[in-house]
Structure formats: C-alpha cells, structure tokens
Amino acid sequence: MNPRYDFEGQVALVTGAASGMGLAAARAFAQAGAAVVLADINKAAVDKAAQELADAGHQAIGVGCDVTDEDQAARAVDRAVEAFGRLDMAFNNAGIQAPPSDAADESAEEFDRVNAVNLRGVWAAQKHELRQMRTQGSGAIVNCSSLGGLVGLPERAAYHASKHGVIGLTKSAAVEYAPRGIRINAVCPGVIDTPMVADMLEGQAEAMAEIIRQQPIGRLGKAEEVAAAVVWLCGPAASFVVGVALPVDGGYTSH
C-alpha cells in the first residue's frame, strides 16, 4: 500500500510521460491531487494519456516535447505556468536505450544520440524548471538516471556515460539550489517492466532469464514502484533529502 500524499494546489511536470515510468509518475502525482503537465515526443500518445487523467477528474494537459531541443523543453515549462500558474515538482524521465556495442566499435552518432536525450535533455529540462522555481523560492526535481549510472557493464559504455552524467548534473545542481529552497535528487531504476525494456529484450528469452537471475528480489521492477520513489522524493517526507542517487533496483547494485 502506497502512502498518501496531498499535492493539492501544486503543479508537476513529467517528461517522457506517454508510457512506462513517466506515465506511472504522472498518474501518481495526479492521484495525490497535483495538476500535471505530461510532456513527450509522441504528441498523440501523451495527449491520450493526459485525456485519460482528465476524464478521471484530474487536472492534466499533454505537451509535445523533444527534450533534445532546448526551446521545446523551455516551452513545456512555460505551458505548465501558463495553464496552472506555477511549477512545484518535476520528473525528468525522458530517455532512450542504446544498442549493445563493443566500446571500440561504438559510433560517434550513437554516442551523440543517446547523450542528447538522456543527459542533455535532462540538463535542458532541469535548467528551465529551475528558472521558474527560483522565482518561487521552492520546488523539487527528480532526474532519471539508472543502475547504469552507478555501475559499469560490458557493451553499455555510451548509455552508462549518459546515466553517470545525470548523477553529476543532479549533485552539482542540488548543492547549488538547496539554499534557495529547491531540492534536486535522482532515481536509479533497475530493470523495470516498461515498453522500452520489452522492446530491448524482445525475442531474447535467455537474456531475460539472466536479468531476473541477477535481481536479488527475483523479478523485474514495476513502473509504479519507481513512481512511488519519485513522488516520495518530491514530497514533504523527503524534505531533508538532497542530491541523492536513489537505487530502485531490487537490490541489483547491492551485489
């Protein structure tokens, strides 16, 4: 049973909100009473997700947003303020996978592609969220890293570089903005049962079995379990938590 939160009168922005962990977090914020701006590169899907929340009685709008374009990231924040008057919480979740590759064979194009979304996209979203939050003197941001931000694995150099970078970005901004009333943290999900992971492992039954074997908890994570951590980090119960990279990984990084 998840704890109950009261985010009435507050506004949350979630990137990568059309599916998976982003959609689960948007739902969790809405169920706690927040108005939610769902941003995603897939405009049709994010509009559908926002409409489902609105139909359930929540305040929600969808925004098309490619986080690799800083102007679009800024516009998503502007839409939140235009629609709801402020911005209190953000989950910078938009991310992509990179295909496994020998480190000696990874292309510059692939490195740039994955870092453009996973690192530069988080940087751009956080930058413009902070511009709004510093005028308010309050706010909470959670950036999505990964267990790949905490460990190294073969054939994952570009992806892990992007996720390690998110943690550095988070920690530096956290110590800069904590004195201004804004808390910034990161979550580091393990292998979560999302469409992105399903696509990555499609037709790889042996790989899935090996991943589950490596999980001390013995299963994949659920998007809702990551969302619960995000909502907690944004809420008053985490008021003294600043600059952490919180593993939500079923014990994987405790090996």
UniProtKB/TrEMBL annotation:
Q: Does the keyword Oxidoreductase apply?
A: yes
**Known Pfam families for this protein?**
adh_short_C2
The cross-references to CDD domains, in alphabetical order and at most eight, read: SDR_c
EC number of the protein: 1.1.1.47
Q: Which UniProt keywords apply?
A: Oxidoreductase
Which segments of the protein form a coiled coil according to its record?
Answer: none
Keyword Cell division assigned to the entry: answer is no
GO MF terms listed in the record are: glucose 1-dehydrogenase [NAD(P)+] activity
Which segments cross the bilayer? Answer: none
Q: Which InterPro entries match?
A: NAD(P)-bd_dom_sf (IPR036291), SDR_fam (IPR002347)
The family annotation for this protein states: Belongs to the short-chain dehydrogenases/reductases (SDR) family.
Record's protein name: Glucose 1-dehydrogenase
Q: What species is given as this protein's source? A: Streptomyces hainanensis
* Upper classification of the organism: Bacteria, Bacillati, Actinomycetota, Actinomycetes, Kitasatosporales
